[in-house]
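Sharing in case it's useful to others searching the archive later.

Someone asked me privately for the predicted structure of asparaginase, so I'm posting the question and my answer publicly. Question first, with the sequence:
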Amino acid sequence: MSFRIISKFVLNQGNGRCITACHRNPFGTFLSSPSATPSNATARARGRQKSYFQLRFFGGLSDDIENLVCKPLQSPAGVLDESESNFIPQNALYEGQGCAKKRVLVLCTGGTLTMAPDLKQKGALAPVEGAISKYMSQMVELKEDNPEMPDYVLHEYSPFLDSADLGPADWVTIAKDIESNYFKFDGFVVLTGTDTMAYIATALSFMLENLNKPVIFTGSQIPLCMPQNDARRNLIMAMIFASRDSINEVCIFFHDRLLRANRTTKVNTHKLLAFDSPNMDPLATIGISIDENEHVLLPPAKGPLRVHLRMDTRLLTIRLVPGFDDSMIRRLIESNMEEQQLRALVLQLYGTGNLPSVKESFIKLLADATEQGIMVIASTQCFTGSVLLGHYATGRALLEAGAVSAGDMTLEAIACKCAYLFGRRGFTNQQNEELMGISLRGELTPPELLVPPTGASGSFEQCIAKARKRS
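And my answer, the predicted C-alpha cells:
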C-alpha cells in the first residue's frame, strides 16, 4: 500500500525564483525534487508575498515512488502536514493556484469495519491493522480520476482498540489530531466501533468548540472484507459529507442518514440501521439524492476553534425499577461526604421524570446529595420525549430537592456534557446546573420550544419562564 503524493511548496524568495522544496510525507519518509525556475512559474511568483502549498493524496500505486517503503504511523497522528504554510486556499488566488478537490483526513481506531480474517486466530474475524488501507486503495470510488470524491489521507492508530476500551484519554488523542490538522483538511472522518461510537462522537462535539468543519463518525455492522457489507457505503458517504461546506458539526453517518452526534444513540445490535436520533430529525438522508434538512443544521461558528481536553467523568448513572431499594444509593452518597469524589448522579426515571411518591426518604436523600455539591440529574427511560419536572407532583418534589432536568437529551449527551462542564473547572455548581438546561452544541431542545403536555400545571409554566429568563 502506498499513496501518490503530489507535493509542491512555492516560496517567494524575493528575487522571483520558484523553488520546489522537499516535503515530509505522512509515512515519515521524505520526497524531494530539485529546484527549478520555469519562466511561467517565476512570473507568477514574482511580487507575491504569500506562500502556497499544494498537497494531494490519492489511493493507488504511483510509478515514480514505486520503491518507496511506507512506514506505519504511530499513535497519535500529530501534524500530518509539516509545511510552513498553515492554510491551503480552497479557491485559486491567481491562475495556476488552488486545489480542485477537497481534502479529508480519515482517522481509524479499529472496529468492525476494519475486520478481516486473522491468520494468528485461525482465520477468525478480528481488526487487522493495514487492512483498511489495502481496501481503500482498491476502491474504484476513491481513485484519483473520480471528481466526485475528495482526496484523503488515512491514519491508522496503533494498536487498534475495541470501542468499549476507548475512554477519555483516547477522545483527547482524536481531538488533538483534529486540532493539529484543522487547517490542512476540509473535513474529518473517524472510523470506530459502533458500541460506544455515540459516546465518543458526542464527547468530541463538546470538546471541539466553534467547529466550522465536518467531523463525521462512521463504522459498520459487517466488515468491509465481506461480500455483503454496509461498510463500503458508510465509508464513502462519510467522506462525501466530510467534504460538504454545509456541515459544521460532529455527526454520525450510518446506513442512510446523517445524525447530529450528540442527539444519537445506538438502537440495534443486528440491523444495519444501528443508530437513531430519537428527538430530532436527521441532518440528511440519502436515497437517489442527498436530502439535507437545512432547518436543523447548525450555522457556522463565529469564533476560532477551541479544543477542550479536560473531561471529568466522575458521575454515576442509575436506572430505577419498581420496588428498588434505595439503601445502596444512600450508602454511596454518605460515603461521598468524606471523599467528595462523585460530581453527578444521573437518575433514569419513569415517564416525564417521576419516581414513587411514597419514597419521601429518597427525596430527602437527593436533597442531601445536592447540598454536598452532587448534581442530581433527572432523565427519562423513554426512548423519545422529554423530562418535565413541573408536570406531576413527584416531579415537582424532585425540582424542589434541587434536581436538574435533562430535557430531551440522550444518556450519551448527559454523560459527556457533564464531563465537559466539570472539566472546565471555572464554573460553579450553580452555573453547571444552569448550563445543563442550555443547548451548547444543539444537544437538547430549549424548554421554551417544548410542546406543553395536556393539562400542564402552573409549575411547568413557571419552569419554562425560568428557563427563558436564564437564556
